[in-house]
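Let us work through a complete example step by step.
Step 1: write down the sequence.
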Amino acid sequence: MDRKQKGGWVYILADRYRGGMYTGVTSNLSARVYAHKNGTGSQHVAETGKTMLVYAERHENITDAIAREKLAKKWRREWKFALIEKNNPDWEDLWEEWYDDAEKRS
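Step 2: predict the structure and record it as tokens.
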């Protein structure tokens, strides 16, 4: 799966299993998560340590991704838990699975 394609991504970061979550949207998932992991993505993420990429959802266009992010931000925690756990039941950091060392450094 090419995570640099045109379109948009809705993503959820967490600080631990079923812990605090941050929902965001981006057109470049790898660059955005890299920025979060290095403390430059957002002040909130940097202050709370929500750097584990536990969910990502691609959309063909950024407008759809933005609409989905706005909707997801209104969801109850339990709904987000169910969304994450459908494909990532152990809340593993998808960054570690998806990106090799060379890509992480770029």
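Step 3: interpret the result. The chain has one domain: 8-105.
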